[in-house]
Amino acid sequence: MAERLGPGVIVLYGRDEYRVAERLRALTSTLDPAVAEFNRSVVAGERLTPGELRAQLEVLPFLSARRLVIVTGLLERFDEVPRSARRQAEVDAFVAALGEAPPTTVAILVGGDLRPARNLLLSALHAAGATIERFSLLREGELVAWIQRRARQRQLQLQPEAVTRLAALVGPNLWTLEQEIEKLALWAGQEPVDAATVALLTPAAREESVFRLVDTLLAGQEREAARQLTVLLASGESPFGILALLQQRVRQLWLVRELAAAGLSPAEVKQRAGLGYQPEELFRDLYAFAGRLSAESVRALHHALLETDEAIKTGRRPPELALLLLTRTLSEGRG
Q1: Predicted TM-score of the model (pTM)
Q2: CA–CA gap between residue 184 and residue 163 (Å, rounded)
Q3: What is the CA radius of gyration of the chain?
Q4: Furthest-apart CA pair in the chain: how many Å?
Q5: Tens of pLDDT along 175-212?
Q6: Are both 105 and 47 inside the same structural domain?
Q7: Which residue range is the domain that position 196 belongs to?
Q8: Which pLDDT does position 206 carry in this prediction?
Q9: The last residue of a domain, from among 98, 114, 134
């Protein structure tokens, strides 16, 4: 079977959806543009049968040397599912269908954040010799290099500290990073961009400011929290945007508290909660607060946020006043 798969079957998967999409675009760009639309099929794999896949693969290319069949959602069907005779037979049938495709067909299976060792189809394709390409989230050094490359392509002069600041604020979300680099390039023109400018123009910086506001409240520093809130409002931050981020931070607090109570280490909690690329200082504060708060206190914080949201939307209180009153409620309810 290994000799029959190889380069004709390509698997693209991983948490970095941007680079998966980028690689898929590179593969499809190899088709003759004049007939590309006739030689590219996208097949939804959620309910796909081996027979239906075989029928797609057997279609001959139109005025071209090859044809691409892109299959989405199929790999997810076999991720972390119990192994059984029926499941294994289904996997074998899909691998057989791929192995019987004509040499003019290239099958590309696209997946998300899969577990290689616990995905029956992915394991079978690997054993059969398919080309497997995994795209994990970029690590810190890789992320910095990626930003530098994209900045050069846009003729954007990012100072070294601006690059590291942008990486820290946005993390490995390359979709967002691409948008931020585009925005910075349009704003700066030929002028160099420093870290302060990145912090001023990047939404993630404002998000970090709101998260620090929550942490200040949870530390019981009501006066400092009121000052931070006033600065955010004066800078043009929407009261509704602040409130939404406050709610997000409290939800994170609840999730971290539950995961820590289940016995997970701080590193495991950070990963499982989806906070892997949050600045370490922010996560460290969140983890510490989560360990000190009772379940009742977290529920009270959430309830206070809902009440404030209702007070603003119903017009009972002006948004700015409602948020300032909220700082006192959250500060007093930290324990």
Answers
A1: 0.63
A2: 12
A3: 25
A4: 72
A5: 888 988 998 998 888 899 988 888 777 766 666 677 77
A6: yes
A7: 140-201
A8: 62
A9: 134
